[in-house]
UniProtKB/TrEMBL annotation:
It comes from the Bacteria. NCBIfam families: stp1. The keyword Iron does not apply. It comes from Qipengyuania aquimaris. GO terms for molecular function: glycosyltransferase activity. InterPro entries: Sugar_tfrase_PEP-CTERM_Stp1. This is TIGR03087 family PEP-CTERM/XrtA system glycosyltransferase. Keywords: Transferase.
Amino acid sequence: MGDILFLAHRMPFPPNRGDKIRSHHLIKALARLGPVHVGTFAETQEDRDHCAELSTIAASSHVADRNKPLVLAGIQAVLSGKSVSLAAFHDCGLQYWVEQTLAANAIDTIVIFSGQMGQYLPDSFDGRVVIDLCDVDSAKFEAYAEAGIMAWINAREGRLLAAEEEWLARRSDVTTLISESEADLLRSRLAPETSAEIRAFGNGVDTHFFDPQADLPPSPFEQAGPNIVFTGQMDYAPNVAAVERFAHHVLPKLVAAHGAHFHIVGRAPTEAVRELGTLLNVTVWGAVPDMRPFLGAADAVVAPLSIARGVQNKVLEAMAMARPVVLTAEAATGIPARDGEHFLVARDDAAMIETLESLLEGRLDGGAIGANARQFVADEMSWEAIYEQVGELVRPSGKNSRAA
C-alpha cells in the first residue's frame, strides 16, 4: 500500500469555515488509510499557527503563503488564458514540492481538494486520482454574472472553470461533489462523449462538539429575545447578500411585532455587513472563539441564501445544536431532511416572516423541530459516517492503481 498526496487550496486547520471543515475531516480520514503528504496554502497567521498540528497528521507537508494580489492574479489569468481562480492559486514553490514529493515517495494516490488545485496534477502520474470539487464552481460564477455582479468577469470565469471541471472529471478516476444535486449538475454539463465517474460525497457535522447538552459558556445576548442568528464567513458574497436581505426585508416586521434582535456572527465582516449594525436591533459580532453559545441561545437560526452551492455547514451546525432553522430552498439543497419536521423552508421573504412569526408566537413548536433536527444529523450526517466512504473512494476493492 503506497502513500497518498493530498492537495488542498486552503490549510485544513483550523476547521473554522465550510471548505476547511470538509478538508480537515477528509485529511483525517485519509490518514487512517496510510501516510499522507499535504500541499496547501496559508492565508492568515492563524493558518500558520496550525502548521504544527498539520505535521502531527501529515507524513510531510508544504504550506505556501497565499499572498498574491488579486490584480496580479487577474493579469496572469488574462495573459495565460486561464481562470482567475487558477492563477490565484498557482505557486512555483508548491509546484516544485509536488514534483519532489512524487519523486521521493511511493505515492499511488493523489487526492485533489477543490478545482483550483488540479493544475498541480502531473500528466505523467498513472496512479489513482480522486478529485473532490465540492461544488460546481462554474455554475456559481455564472449565477453571479446573471445577477449582474461584475457580469463580464464572472461570465469569463464561469466559462473557463466549466472547461477545467470537464478536464478534471475526465482526468480523474472518480470526481466527488458535496451532494447528489451537485453531482447531477456536473454530469449535465459534461460533453456527451465524456467518460467520467461522478459521485456524491456528503458533508458531515461533529455532533459531539455541536451538542446542546455540552458545558457551554452562558448566553452572549444581553437582551431576553427573541434572538435570531445567522452564522458564516462574512466576506463571502452570498452570505453578505443573505444578511442584507434579512436585515432590510424580513427583520423590520419582526422587530415591530416582537422586538426581535438579529445577530450576524462570523469572521471578516465587510464594510457593508458592518453598516447593518447601525440598523435597529442588528448586532454584528464578527469573529467569535466559539459559535456554539450563539447557536444555543438562539430562538431561531436563519439561512436566507439566494445563491448556495452544496451543503451549508452553518445549517448542519445549527441543526446539531437542536435549533429550529428557517432557510431558503437554496440553503436546504443537499440536506435530505424533511421540511416541517427537521427544518422550515421559506420560499420568499413573506414566507420567512410568516414562518418566524409562527415560531415566535408558538404556533410552530421550535423545540420539537430542533430536537428532530439534532436526531437527523446525528443519525445521517455525522463525520464518522462520512469517514467510512473515504476508503472506497481512494482504494476500492483494496486496489491502488488507475488500472484497478
